[in-house]
Amino acid sequence: MNVLQTVGVVIAGILALAGIGALWQMIASRRDHRRYPAPGRLVDVGGHCLHIVVTGQPTANATVVLEAGMASMSANWAWVRDDLARDHRVITYDRAGLGWSEGGRAAMDTATSADDLHALLGAAGIAPPYVLAGHSYGGLVSRVFADHYPDEVVGIVLVDASHPDQWVNIPASRDGRTVALGNRVTASLARVGLLRLMHAERSFIAGLPAHEYAQMRAYLARPQGWSAGADGLLAWGRQSRDQVNAARDLGGLPLVVLSVTEQDRYAEVLTKLQAELALLSTNSRHTTITGATHYTLVSTRIYATVVADAVRAVTAAAPYGAPAREPVAP
User: What pLDDT is attached to residue 274?
Assistant: First the structure.
C-alpha cells in the first residue's frame, strides 16, 4: 500500500468514525429531549420563543430575575433559585439559542438579549420592579437591561460577572476571538458525540442538584449552546463592549458585587476588573468568596447560599413598589 492509499484509508476511517459518532449523538439527543422536557413554558417575544420558569409567589419583595452565563442556561441557577423562591418570586429563563429557547434572528449582543428579556417579562405578565442577578456574561446583559429600563430595576447583584473590557485586558484572547474559536471547536466535538464521551462538562456544573445536573449535562453535550456562546463572544467585541460601556452608572442603585478567590488564569487582571465593577454605584458592597471558583459560585450549594443572601440584601434595600436608595446591608 502506497502513501496515498494509506492516507485515504486513514481519512475514510476518520469519516466513518465521525459518522458513527454523529448518529450516536442524534440518538442520544433525542433521548435527552424525552427525558428532560422544558420545565417552564415557551413565550413568543416576536419571531422566536424564549423559555421561562417562574418559581415562588409574589411577595413584598421585588421579583428576582436570574441571568445565566455565556453558554449556560436556567438550570444552572437551581440552588439559588430554590433558596430565593421561599420568600421571592424568581424568574429563570434561557436567552435565545440556549437551553430550551429557540434561536433568535438578531445578533447575540447584550442589547438584543436585554430587550428580549424585557419582551419576555412583559409577555409573561411579570411586572416590575425587578432585582437582577447576573452570573458571568449575564452581568453584562443585566447592566444593559438596567440602562434601557431604569425605572423597572431596583437593584443588581453581579455574580463574578464579566467586565466589558475583559478581553482587551487579556491579549491572548485576541479580543475574545480565541475563546470563541474554542467554543466552535467544542460545538464540533459535540456534533460527533465526542463531548458526550469525554464528560468535559463536569467542572462547569459540579455540585448541582441531581436533576439539574442531568439537565445541564445533557444540554452541554449538544452543540447549540456552544455555538450560541461563540456568537455571543464575537458580538462582544463588535457590539456588546460598546453597549455596556455606554450604559450610565447606577447612581445610588443597590449593588452587590461577588467575586471568587480561585482563578485558573489571569487572576490579577480579573481581580482588578471585579473591583472596578463595585464603583458602578455609590451604594455598593464588594465581597470575595474564599474557595469559590467562577462556576462553583452558583453550582455548589454552600456558595449559592451566599449568592442568595446577597440578593436578599439587595431586595431588602429596595422595597417593593419604588426604586429605593437605602444602603446595602454590610
Answer: 94
CA distance 161 to 138: 7
Q: Taking the mean position of all CA atoms in its chain, how far away is CA 180?
A: 15
Q: Does 168 share its domain with 236?
A: yes
147 within a domain of the structure (yes/no): yes
Q: In what order do the strands lie in the sheet with 153-159?
A: 41-44, 49-55, 90-93, 63-67, 130-135, 153-159, 255-262, 284-293
Are both 195 and 98 inside the same structural domain? Answer: yes
189/233 same-domain check:
yes
> Do residues 153 and 167 share a domain?
yes
Domain hosting residue 262, numbered range: 39-317
Q: Is the pLDDT of residue 178 over 90?
A: no
Task: Cell numbers for 90, please give them.
Answer: 424568581
Contacts of 201 (CB under 8 A, 6+ apart): 195, 216, 217, 220, 221
Same domain, 30 and 140: no
Same domain, 97 and 147: yes
Shared-domain flag, residues 55 and 5? no
pLDDT at 322 over 80: no
Taking the CA atoms of 38, 84, 98 and 239 in sequence, report the sign of the dihedral they define: positive
Kindly indicate the confidence band of residue 173, based on its pLDDT and cuts at 50, 70 and 90. confident
Verify that 159 and 199 share a domain, yes or no: yes
Give the separation between CA 119 and CA 103, rounded to whole angstroms. 15
CA distance 29 to 41: 20
Residue-wise burial string across 240-258, b where 16 or more C-beta atoms lie within 10 A, e elsewhere: bbebbeebeebebbbbbbb
pTM tops 0.85: yes
The pLDDT score that the predictor gives to residue 199 is: 64
Cis peptide before 129 (omega within 30 of 0): yes
The domain tally of the chain equals 2
Q: Which residues pair with 64 in a beta bridge?
A: 90, 131
